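pipeline/complex-builder :: batch 7 item 3
reading input block
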Amino acid sequence: MIEISKLNAWFDDNHVLKDVDISVPENGSFGLVGESGSGKSTVLRTITGLVDDWEGTITVKGNQLGPKRDKDFYRLVQMVFQDPFGSLHPRHTIDRILTEPVNIHGLGNSDARVVEALKQVGLDNAFRFRYPHQLSGGQRQRVAIARALILEPKVLLLDEPTSALDVSIQAEVLNLLGRLRRDLGLTYIMVSHDLAVVAHMCDDIAIMNHGRIVERATAEQLAEGTLEHPYSQQLYKAAGGYDRAVVDTFVDWD
Amino acid sequence: MTTETLLTVQDLEVTFNTPKGKVHAVRGVSFDLGRERLGIVGESGSGKSQTGRAILGLTAANGSISASKMKFHDVDLANLTPKQWRKVRGARISMIMQDPKYSLNPVMTIGNQIIEAYREHHKVNTKEARHRAIEMLEAVKIRDPQRVFDSYPHEVSGGMGQRVMIAMMLIPDPELIIADEPTSALDVTVQLQVMAILDDLVRDRGMALIFISHDLHLVSSFCDRVLVMYQGLVVEELRASELHNAKHPYTKGLLNCLPKMNGNHDDLPILEREASWAEG
Ligand SMILES: Nc1ncnc2c1ncn2[C@@H]1O[C@H](COP(=O)(O)OP(=O)(O)OP(=O)(O)O)[C@@H](O)[C@H]1O
Ligand SMILES: Nc1ncnc2c1ncn2[C@@H]1O[C@H](COP(=O)(O)OP(=O)(O)OP(=O)(O)O)[C@@H](O)[C@H]1O
Ligand SMILES: [Mg+2]
Ligand SMILES: [Mg+2]
């Protein structure tokens, strides 16, 4: 479904993606983990057309992407952004935020779609006429997921989709994402800093550091901690919780 | 940790007026805080952030707060003038906000914002403030501090933005830090490194820390004590190391919801809420 090869990206002269290769079969779920600033979001943002300066090839459902994305692309591929506050218009009601993409794509039936999307993410209808700042962090993230789902895409690019959520809603959202993938045949690329989330949700995982994929693993390998690269091992240790002595052994990998 | 009390909160209530009626966000929260690491966990909307914001007088305009007691040392936080707030907020009590990019000024470079934060409470020249700012960026493990110093908030990654916020809050050397999901956008290694910085401030400088998080593993491995919140109430208080032995079905339910590192893709258990938990 998604084939990315030799992807490089730059912000001015900052070379942030270096020869990134990713391949995700239809209905697959690919996990990206790694250092903060290593380029995980940039991979997703490049696919959705939010990064100008890139080289390499990106193919989605057999179509190689050029510099611009058209409307059809966004019916096929939707992204849930990392920062739900920044990505929701502060002066629009939730209703308007959800209705807008339906209208832009001329899908009609927006009322029923909004009700359905809110239901899918477990938000009560009472939230419909609130503004983003009147919601808790977790409630806002569910709105962001609802907005992506409302166009019934085939590919979801999920940038830390549950990192702003408490664990009970995270469980519901992860189950929801799992169910949507099974029922609708969706394909995911999911960025998360939570190794357990990625092990739970994804089949194949890539570990990024400094713009490069330093290691690939299956969910099983990740679960067993059989990782080779020293950065991956450090990441695995860190997932075990806070331990002052372990923190002191951490080093920067260049 | 010592038994000296820095902060006392008794019967804190926070209520919002909305077009759909009143939202009772915090309902009678009480706790004492010493020079320790207190965790507040609980599901989304349970009132964790609003508890933290009320302590700093940062409740939104459509909200009102009441408390039978809210004291920081001998300062009565319930009755401060704006001028008195300026001496407390940022200087003696700081809050690391949940939405870092939203709290940073989008049209000012990160470096200038840190300098501004520092000079608000310290009379130093620009050169020294600049030096301190770079030092703080290094302290929060930003690898390329000079570049980040000259960047605007939209030019840095989510995790970097969060660390910048932490640097800004630490620079005035406060006695109490309220950290609202301070590390949720960070990768796990940096997360722990940032927590080690906070940990050292508690151990070495006797700082007190309120750590708001939905990461139960992190809180139980990091904090001394935990408050578990549900619908504005504290339903359970326990030693952090005893979190896995929690008694309240809500706390147990939250622990059960966590995905495990076994690569198993089955559905996760869902929290079944009971009406009785919300009765104060
Ligand atoms: N719009 C932008 N302009 C300039 N530089 C940028 C921009 N967006 C990202 N960067 C830089 O690109 C690099 C990769 O950032 P990216 O957001 O992809 O990291 P990430 O892996 O998603 O990190 P995090 O886990 O912290 O979200 C970082 O050095 C960041 O500062
Ligand atoms: N300005 C506001 N007007 C109306 N309701 C509000 C306002 N701000 C917050 N609330 C409500 O107060 C309740 C508590 O919110 P709070 O931000 O404290 O939750 P939280 O526990 O921090 O959740 P999260 O983990 O999602 O950040 C929520 O139901 C929220 O919708
Ligand atoms: Mg990111
Ligand atoms: Mg909050």
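note: Chain A has a mean pLDDT of 90.
queue -> next item
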